[in-house]
Write a structure and sequence with these properties.
Jelly Rolls, globular, 8-stranded antiparallel sheet, mainly beta, 33% strand, binds 2-acetamido-2-deoxy-beta-D-glucopyranose
Length: 404
């Protein structure tokens, strides 16, 4: 399938306006003379001269192909970055459900205390308190934020300079379905504790969803009782869900930071859920350019295949979440065997222990899947954007009921 798009074909883009108003925001790099064409996100293309006309663009856009042969693009949906980063998030200030020794603060307090801010250069910082000495047993201030917007599928691309780590620290970047946990699913994209070096991806679901072993991902399946645990059911095995540990030592902790951070990408569609991580030097060009093409990224770190877990049924209405907690269910329970000094409670007292417990974020970009109907003619591949129903993409229930 993919080879089709490397042929020197002319692509004819046929746009017919009546059903396409939402698509008029699509933009294309139409400048002549450049070799690699892609959807250009930097400018807005306002089609002039309706009625419909054909626009020739060179082929080799960042087209992706579904297993059934149909084609699609990942198009920009939301960007969280810079001064406006925090505008579209809620600050969680209840007790930590994972029993962390943390005091999650509300929005005004988070800004007042300097736990969240945007630097002059646009870098977004979110951190646990690293200024206050605490009495033994007192919880440390930190933040947990959750996107106001909910998603049902998407490509989530997080560009970081640093992710939090350090003894007693337990951060996560994840998505969570509404309602009764774990019935609308949880996808943990970045998670780890202490000075770990390997990121752990995980899924927590309602009963009935399992990882497909021996599929193509580079990570190692997390074990339970000495066996690879394939069962993602969040209600058993101490709520651990099913997980995959990345092979790269630079996917979490000191080495990730030391290399200038990098990019984590989570793709969630009807074909499954996959996570890739790239340390700075290996971030693909299409990500940097804002035209992500997962088909170029190589084997993912972790994959939840659709065969044994319908990704549109087990994962519904997800908010994106960042948090940094301390001790608790994971960092507390594993502390004694982590190689960290003393006890988790003692560790919590000294603010100097939390200088690396911070997120430093360049951007979080969410892309949505845009199906494209195409057909092959003698010398041209024709896309008819308006044959694609953009509403289908964000309504998994329709697909879930109709297809599975
Ligand atoms: C935020 O938290 C602080 C400290 O707990 C509290 O005094 C303040 O009323 C809270 N603000 C809002 C808007 O809830
Ligand atoms: C895994 O990758 C190999 C080589 O790219 C491919 O032949 C095989 O079909 C893949 N298996 C699955 C389950 O996707
Ligand atoms: C998802 O959100 C939509 C819109 O708010 C709502 O109608 C639907 O019931 C939710 N689905 C589930 C499974 O909670
Ligand atoms: C913070 O990171 C620096 C740089 O890697 C390291 O030297 C230092 O020990 C870390 N501090 C803590 C408290 O983890």
């Amino acid at each position: 399938m993919y080879s089709l798009f490397s042929l020197p074909l002319l692509v004819i883009l046929a746009i017919s306006p009546p059903s396409c108003s939402a698509l008029s925001r699509l933009s294309f790099d139409l400048r002549a003379g450049r070799s690699a064409r892609h959807v250009d996100l930097s400018t807005t293309y306002e089609p002039r001269g309706w009625p419909p006309r054909s626009i020739p663009i060179e082929k080799r856009s960042n087209l992706n192909v579904n297993p059934d042969g149909s084609t699609f693009l990942w198009l920009p949906q939301d960007e969280y970055s810079g001064k406006t980063f925090f505008d579209r998030w809620d600050f969680f200030s209840d007790a930590d459900p994972t029993k962390g020794h943390v005091n999650y603060v509300n929005r005004s307090r988070a800004f007042d205390q300097g736990l969240v801010y945007t630097q002059e250069d646009g870098t977004v910082i979110m951190k646990g308190d690293d200024t206050k000495w605490l009495e033994k047993g007192v919880y440390r201030d930190s933040v947990r934020i959750s996107s106001k917007k909910q998603y049902n599928t998407g490509l989530f691309v997080l560009d970081l300079n640093r992710a939090p780590w350090g003894c007693a620290t337990w951060p996560a970047f994840w998505t969570l379905g509404t309602g009764n946990w774990p019935f609308n699913g949880e996808i943990d994209i970045i998670e780890g504790v202490h000075d770990n070096q390997h990121n752990q991806v995980a899924w927590h679901t309602a009963p009935g969803c399992t990882l497909t072993p021996a599929t193509n991902f580079t990570g190692k399946i997390v074990q339970h009782s000495g066996q690879d645990n394939l069962d993602c059911n969040g209600l058993i095995n101490d709520n651990s869900g099913c997980g995959v540990i990345e092979w790269s030592r630079a996917s979490y902790g000191p080495y990730f930071d030391a290399q200038g951070g990098g990019v984590f990408a989570m793709k969630w569609d009807e074909n499954g859920i996959a996570v890739w991580s790239f340390y700075r030097a290996t971030v693909p060009k299409d990500i940097v350019e804002g035209t992500p093409d997962p088909s170029n990224w190589g084997v993912p770190s972790a994959v939840l295949e659709p065969d044994n877990c319908n990704p549109l049924q087990y994962f519904v209405n997800h908010s994106i979440i960042f948090d940094i907690t301390f001790c608790g269910d994971w960092a507390g329970n594993s502390y004694a065997t982590s190689g960290c000094p003393g006890t988790c409670e003692d560790r919590l007292m000294d603010p100097g222990n939390f200088v690396n417990a911070s997120w430093s974020i360049n951007s979080l970009k969410v892309y949505r899947k845009q199906p494209i109907k195409g057909r092959i003619t003698n010398s041209a591949y024709q896309f008819n954007w308006c044959d694609a129903d953009p509403t289908l993409v964000n309504r998994p229930s329709i697909r879930a009921n109709g297809k599975r």
